[in-house]
Amino acid sequence: MSANKEMTRTLFVSTSYPRDQTDWRGMFMAHISRALARNPEVSVLQWAPPGEVDPAVDLATTELESQWLATLMQRGGISHWLRTRPPSGAIAAAKLLRMLRAVYRRTGEVDLYHINWLQCALPLPADHKPALITVLGNDMRLLRLPFMRTMLRRVMRRRKVVLCPNATWMQAPLQAAFGDLAHVQPVSFGIDPRWYAVDRRVQTHGEPARWIVVSRLTADKLGDLFAWSQPMFAGTSRELHLFGPMQEALEIPGWVRYHGPASAEQLAGDWFPRACGLITLSRHAEGRPQVMLEAMAAGLPIIASAMPAHADFINDNDTGMLCDTQAAYRATLSALEDAQANRRIGTAAREWARREVGTWDDCAQRYVAIYHRLLGGSSNER
User: Fold this and answer.
1) How far is residue 247's CA from residue 120's CA, in Å, rounded to a whole number?
2) pLDDT band, residue 381 (cuts 50/70/90)
3) Do 185 and 207 share a structural domain?
4) What is the number of structural domains in the chain?
5) Closest by alpha carbon to 273, among 191, 353, 190, 195?
6) Rounded CA gap, 205 and 313, in Å?
7) Does residue 94 fall inside a structural domain?
8) What's the CA gap between 298 and 155, in Å, rounded?
9) How far is CA 249 from CA 75, 174, 216, 246, 361, in A?
10) Rg (CA), the chain
């Protein structure tokens, strides 16, 4: 593809990308890439693991880089590799930085960098090109590492930078760390229209109350789920359905109905329409978990642990329910099994998602407005 001279040429960098439509890993990156490619103001050059891309996207990865990034995805990403196998993970991190340095040097024709995850900005060259850097929950852990802030600040001094966390709770710490060098502007990810089209049927008296959990299976992501749920689910008519890939060796109780990973089509078509709600008792460093946004768009009430990342976009007893004790969790389950309360919370959640988040095309337009500002133009921002 030859880029139109009036289009903004951006290098879109991500270390996570789905292999195909059935792959859950990094699916939000595919949505952003495709939405940017649909935007008539942007020409996308992409460096990411191999996967299905929009025909308008050009690829910056070499064959060897693509093979290595596919291995990185199979290992769960660089953060997971570092946590589970620190020695080999450190070697992999160094190799990743070398690859990124190489791609930045050979893509000098782009107008700006769109970089996902802070660590991917570390090898940026001193070319003064502006950068939009998205920040996710895991990045906040990265900032605790020795010298990490110093290294990132050195990179930011060389260019105009906008840091774009996908949740507002990250704005204050990012402002404190980098506000003198970069503009911090939260940008919410989008939601695929399929979720807004889900037709929920609130369960009636006599039907089993089906609750669902969609999560990577790690101790932090599940939190108190099994301990708190056992008295309310085991031996009762309630059903707890668990979906997601096993990423740590966890024992799943017999009363939990574990289905393994599920595709978006399965969740939107089969499970969200007939569930009471979505449960997440995560203790993980979250941004705005995409599955929670999708559930809200589908009109599905959410029960979430009362942590800042969840309180950032769930208004308790309005667009969802927050709980910080087992007793509160029990009361919340019972409250949302009332059809009228369930419908009220679900409707409010969908309206909030439509108003505040919108679609992936809306998300892309928010990024494009920032591109214009970084390049010295002007644009109306949503």
Assistant:
1) 23
2) very low
3) no
4) 2
5) 195
6) 31
7) yes
8) 41
9) 15, 34, 12, 7, 38
10) 21
